[in-house]
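Q: What residues go here?
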């Protein structure tokens, strides 16, 4: 069954390049990003893992843990990490899940339930649906799902932007408009009455009665 926003992120136990984990326990009280890859030693994914390592401090600042996944065993991940460091300049500084039994990929709806066999015999094309980004909140529910084709590298700056919005809107009764970035004006949530909005925000701009714009709350 496909996962949807608001669903509880499936819990699992798995081996990673940093040892065994139970996923919900590993997340703890943090936010988390789980991003998946169809195969080790694939070119686009190599650039993604390297870039993610280079901007990990930005996720750390936001209290967000990062974990990758590939449908290969962890010993292959370690070999791949050497290539990532050599070609991208940064080595993965976060755990990579070994999903050679496809358990996690199936739990997260990225591979059909009947997939089986040796992962070494599967081509990247057979695993092309294992190209998702899941943002998971401290309550263990899924806040964002992005699905990318194999030919298009992911924009992790956009993932950071969405996390900024998710964390802001979880704390304040606002929404963020198109192209919003940290520090831009925001929109008062539609569920907030004008009377409550006056108490919370004071005055606002209103190009239409249903579009109430205020500075980003701190």
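A:
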């Amino acid at each position: 069954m496909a996962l949807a926003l608001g669903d509880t992120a499936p819990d699992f136990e798995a081996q990673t390049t940093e040892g065994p984990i139970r996923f919900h326990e590993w997340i703890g009280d943090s936010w988390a990003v789980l991003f998946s890859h169809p195969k080790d030693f694939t070119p686009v994914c190599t650039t993604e893992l390297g870039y993610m390592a280079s901007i990990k401090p930005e996720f750390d600042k936001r209290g967000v843990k990062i974990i990758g996944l590939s449908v290969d065993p962890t010993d292959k991940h370690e070999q791949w990490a050497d290539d990532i460091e050599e070609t991208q300049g940064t080595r993965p500084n976060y755990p990579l899940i070994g999903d050679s039994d496809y358990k996690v990929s199936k739990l997260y709806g990225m591979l059909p339930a009947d997939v089986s066999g040796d992962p070494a015999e599967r081509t990247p094309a057979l695993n092309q649906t294992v190209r998702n980004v899941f943002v998971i909140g401290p309550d263990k529910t899924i806040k964002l799902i992005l699905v990318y084709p194999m030919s298009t590298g992911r924009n992790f700056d956009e993932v950071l932007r969405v996390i900024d919005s998710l964390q802001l809107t979880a704390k304040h009764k606002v929404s963020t408009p198109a192209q919003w970035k940290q520090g831009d004006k925001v929109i008062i949530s539609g569920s907030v009455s004008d009377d409550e909005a006056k108490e919370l925000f004071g005055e606002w701009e209103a190009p239409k009665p249903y579009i109430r714009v205020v500075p980003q709350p701190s």
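A: Context that may help when evaluating the design: The chain has a mean pLDDT of 97. The first strand starts at residue 13 and ends at 16.
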